[in-house]
């Protein structure tokens, strides 16, 4: 997929030739076994994504279709918003200092493989059941809680559920209302909140213990999910503890607090009581 400024280029594959000004988002689909030539008038920036047979086979299995490599032919001039979205998401993941992990990358790769099979090989998607059974869902959720501190793979969770990888992602979302990746992140944030409230570990150690790449990675997700930072949340927790310790009962048992909570303390209390995980 072309990423940079417009550039005049010619691409040839399987006897077809396309010569045009390539713009950001222009896509070429070159199946395995085909060679192509690329001639460009100036420096060009592009993203190449290679999808292996195993990924296609996993997607085809979930779609209940047979996988035939020959079914997808070369396409030299494609505009496809779904492919562009997945490609840009993968590029951002590769360049990020705080990658979301294997589960996220696996999900994107399977989504791309399924899209190519459905729209460029004529495969149709069967109707799926409502979601995972209660027994399978319970096993998966327990496994996530036990393993939330490490990098989980989509195939790993699918194996626990006893379904294929791409099928699992759809069924899990129907069962929980969130993708597997987003659910895992929320559980990690919940674990981080508990560790921050305890106040025993530095924030950097809390991030690693909860399964995040580093403190900055934790901060990004806490802002998205809770609306506050680890430091502000911890400050709120510590201040509330001090207020409770310094509060005194007088005038027939009336509880008198020494002052009103700050915005940071309110953020802590709201997150503690009302975070929807």
Name the overall outline. Answer: flat
Average of pLDDT: 79
Low-confidence stretches: 247-265
The proportion of residues in beta strands is 5-15%
The spatial strand order of the largest sheet comes to: 2-1-4
Q: Tell me, what is the CATH class of the domain at 188-274?
A: Mainly Alpha
Please compute the radius of gyration using only Cα atoms: 25 Å
Count of distinct strands: 7
Summing up helix and strand content along with how strands pair, one would put the structural category as: mainly alpha
Profile the largest sheet.
Answer: 3 strands, antiparallel
Give a quick summary of the entry.
The protein is built from 11 helices and 7 strands. By secondary structure, the chain is mainly α.
Task: From the structure above, extract its key features.
single chain; 277 residues; mainly alpha; Arc Repressor Mutant, subunit A; three-stranded antiparallel beta sheet
Characterization of the model:
- The chain has a domain of 87 residues: Arc Repressor Mutant, subunit A (Orthogonal Bundle), CATH 1.10.10.
- It is 52% helix and 12% strand.
- It is built from eleven helices and seven strands.
- A three-stranded antiparallel β-sheet has the order 2-1-4, with no helix packed on it. Strands 3-5 form a two-stranded antiparallel ribbon.
- A hairpin with a 2-residue loop joins strand 1 and strand 2.
- About 7% of the residues have low confidence.
How is this fold's topology laid out?
Elements: E1 7-13, E2 16-22, E3 27-29, E4 36-40, H1 53-62, E5 75-78, H2 81-95, H3 102-120, H4 134-147, H5 154-161, H6 165-176, H7 180-198, H8 203-210, H9 215-225, H10 230-246, E6 248-250, E7 254-256, H11 263-274
Antiparallel strand pairs: 1-2, 1-4, 3-5, 6-7
Helix pairs in contact: 1-3, 1-6, 2-3, 4-5, 5-6, 7-8, 7-9, 7-10, 8-9, 10-11
């Amino acid at each position: 997929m072309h990423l940079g400024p417009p550039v005049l280029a010619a691409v040839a594959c399987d006897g077809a030739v396309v010569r045009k000004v390539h713009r950001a988002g222009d896509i070429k689909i070159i199946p395995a076994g085909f060679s192509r030539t690329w001639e460009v008038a100036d420096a060009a920036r592009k993203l190449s994504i290679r999808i292996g047979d195993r990924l296609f086979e996993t997607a085809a299995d979930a779609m209940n279709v047979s996988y035939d490599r020959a079914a997808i032919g070369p396409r030299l001039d494609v505009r496809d918003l779904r492919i562009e979205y997945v490609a840009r998401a993968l590029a951002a993941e590769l360049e990020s200092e705080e990658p979301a992990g294997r589960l996220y990358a696996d999900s994107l790769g399977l989504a791309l493989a399924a899209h190519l099979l459905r729209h460029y090989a004529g495969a149709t998607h069967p109707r799926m059941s409502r979601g995972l059974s209660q027994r399978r869902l319970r096993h998966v959720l327990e496994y996530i809680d036990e393993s939330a501190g490490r990098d989980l793979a989509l195939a790993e969770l699918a194996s626990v559920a006893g379904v294929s990888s791409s099928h699992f992602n759809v069924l899990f979302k129907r069962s929980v209302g969130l993708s597997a990746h987003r659910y895992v992140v929320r559980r990690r944030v919940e674990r981080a909140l508990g560790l921050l409230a305890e106040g025993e570990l530095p924030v950097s150690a809390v991030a690693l213990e909860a399964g995040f790449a580093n403190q900055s990675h934790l901060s990004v997700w806490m802002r998205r999910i809770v609306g506050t930072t680890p430091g502000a949340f911890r400050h709120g927790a510590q201040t509330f503890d001090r207020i409770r310790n310094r509060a005194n009962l007088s005038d027939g048992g009336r509880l008198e607090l020494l002052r009103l909570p700050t915005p940071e303390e309110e953020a802590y209390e709201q997150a503690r009581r009302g975070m929807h995980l």
